Amino acid sequence: MPNMSLNKNPMPTQEPQVRAHNFSEVALGYTEDTAIDEAERCLNCKNMPCVKGCPVSIHIPEFISKVKQGEFEEAYKIISQTSSLPAVCGRVCPQETQCESRCVKGVKGEPVGIGRLERFVADWHNAHTGNVSSDVVSNGHKVAVVGSGPSGLTCAGDLAKKGYKVTVYEALHTAGGVLVYGIPEFRLPKSIVAKEVDTLKTLGVDIETNVIIGKTLTVDELFDMGFEAVFIGSGAGLPNFMGIPGESYKGVYSANEFLTRSNLMKAYLEEPETPIMKGGNAAVVGGGNVAMDAARTALRLGAEHVYIVYRRSMEELPARKEEVEHAMEEGIDFRLLNNPVEILGYENPDDPHDPKNGFVTGMKCIRMELGEPDERGRRRPVPVEGSEFVLDVDTVIMSIGTSPNPLIKNTTSGLEVNERGGIIVTEDGLTSRQGVYAGGDAVTGAATVISAMGAGKTAAKAIDEYIMSKEKV
Ligand code: FAD
Ligand code: SF4
Ligand code: SF4
Fold it and tell me: Is the CB of 339 under 6 A from ligand 1?
């Protein structure tokens, strides 16, 4: 029976007071009954506007129809025709600006919970079905992928399904890119990413960790090793700082470093001794998803009070609405229209051995007001003269964006980048160097999981056409 409700079925979550002190997943997922009820809201529109909002063109009405009928494994098969990471996207995709923004149900009421249904289907599959061994026939061609984030994994998965022998080279000791070292456990459990990586391994993809392309091996050496094409999906992991005084005090982190220490060096567990802040007050500078993750992680690591310091207002805050709401419910203190001007630290000139020397003691900020719109149409924040004040903090986490690391560019001949360090590519993901393709954050700068996956998919198609066209010559 169609469900005429104007609202999505709510997502069950852990209580804010409880979850603020643990790293378990916040959102608990739909049950089978709730998933079927939500699927009943879908009108199965002929022109499928929702699909146009999905960068990997998942056949949304088709998979939702299967959920309606309780055929969850069939629904999974439909999703996996176009997406290699459904359990991930169902959790972290900014659905509200993508597929769900196009859903006709959103005209009068809330759109169908497409992301929540996708998550349900992927979790159902993972809980009920083991990995099936692959029956792909090898085509005898080899492709190398640099980086195991969503762009690299998608490119690798699509090529492996076509019979290519794909080797993924990853600089860190764990595969998954930002999905494992950036996005925290309470939003995306690491076991889910590991499961998706395992699925790729069953397709025959080799993943070599602890290999830094540009240091351990170069792109040129990969070609010497017999790879016929290389996909660069090395992300944008180089953190930006503000350039204000005091950024070298102890207790100032980039959000990337802070989250990596928590996620990969397991600072979030009781036992492992990873050097990271515990207790005291923390300020996170920035207003994106990364800032929300850093603030909520600091809270869970034991900070007494956590501030988000953002120079514009709530209206311009770029983080997902759901993440902002979750952060507020957990008690994060939003200091909007404020900007840091200096980080203050302890210095005892009489005793250079004083153990407190060099540690953060506070952050001087200035109040801001919104002026004329900038070139992107966002009102420019302007400092209010004489409004400086000091926030009492022990930790400062800078979350004001990242850029692509120049290592690969500097060690690969003929690879052109733009003024922001992004690799320049054609629509197909081809770089300025024949046989070398790129996609994801390494090209666009920091963006989204699904756009990185879309780029990996596009490049895989182009790489296949390139190698097959050489075969015909
Ligand atoms: P990455 O995921 O960055 O992966 C690149 C990989 O390449 C890394 O593993 C890196 O170690 C490796 N690498 C780098 N250089 C080399 C080298 N020289 N040799 C070998 N390997 C190398 N997006 C969303 O859609 N929703 C969210 O909720 C969201 N939250 C986020 C939260 C945080 C904290 C962060 C940091 C980002 C978030 N994003 C989110 C953005 C999203 O994760 C990225 O846009 C996406 O992961 C980019 O994918 P990628 O494959 O291009 O690169
Ligand atoms: Fe929507 Fe993302 Fe799923 Fe595409 S991958 S259908 S954009 S949630
Ligand atoms: Fe279903 Fe909405 Fe897509 Fe229509 S637009 S098919 S209602 S999800």
Answer: no
Angstrom distance (rounded) from CA 37 to CA 248: 53
Q: Tell me if 232 sits within 8 A of 423, measured CB to CB.
A: yes
pLDDT at 472 over 80: no
Provide the 3-class DSSP secondary structure of residue 221. helix
Q: Catalogue the E-assigned strands of 215-347.
A: 229-232, 238-239, 252-254, 281-285, 305-310, 333-336, 338-345
Q: Collect all residues with Cβ–Cβ distance below 8 Å to 358 and sequence separation of at least 6.
A: 249, 250, 345, 346, 347
* Spacing, Cα 266 to ligand 2 middle (Å): 30
Q: Which residue has the tokens 């104007």?
A: 6
Q: Which spans in 59-189 are helix H? A: 60-68, 72-80, 86-92, 114-128, 150-161, 178-181
Contact 310, 320 (CB under 8 A): no
Q: Of ligand 2's atoms, which has the minimum distance to the CA of residue 60?
A: 6
User: Cα(151) to centroid of ligand 1, in Å?
Assistant: 8
Give the integer Cα–Cα distance in Å for 14 and 268.
18
Q: Are strands 238-239 and 142-146 parallel, antiparallel or unpaired?
A: unpaired
What is the whole-number distance in angstroms between the Cα of residue 235 and the centre of ligand 1? 5
Q: Which of 40, 45, 64 to mutate to test the pocket of ligand 3 (most atoms within 8 A of CB)?
A: 45
The verdict on the CB of residue 60 being under 6 Å from ligand 3 is: yes
pLDDT value for 268: 62
C-alpha span between 179 and 194 (Å, rounded): 10
Query: 319 alpha carbon to ligand 3 midpoint, in Å?
Result: 25
pLDDT tens-digit map of 139-182: 999 999 999 999 999 999 999 999 999 999 999 999 999 999 99
User: Measured from the CB, is residue 289 less than 6 Å from ligand 1?
Assistant: yes
pLDDT in tens, 86-135: 999 999 999 999 999 999 999 999 999 999 999 999 999 999 986 666 67
Distance from C-alpha of 351 to C-alpha of 339, rounded to nearest angstrom: 33
Q: 3-state DSSP call for residue 366?
A: strand
Q: Three-state SS for 233?
A: coil
Take residue 42 and report the two structure tokens written for it: 């879908």
Between residues 247 and 85, which one has the greater pLDDT?
247
Q: Of the ligands numbered here, which is closest to the C-alpha atom of 102?
A: 3
Query: What is the pairing mode between strands 389-391 and 360-373?
Result: antiparallel
Which of the ligands is closest to the CA of residue 50? 3
Q: Indicate if ligand 2 lies below 6 Å from the C-beta of 174.
A: no
pLDDT computed for residue 196 by the predictor:
84
Q: Is-contact 295 288, C-beta < 8 A?
A: no
89 Cβ closer than 6 Å to some ligand 2 atom: yes
254: helix, coil or strand?
A: strand
Q: Does residue 149 line the site of ligand 1, with CB under 6 A? A: yes
Closest Cα to atom 39, ligand 1: which residue? 448
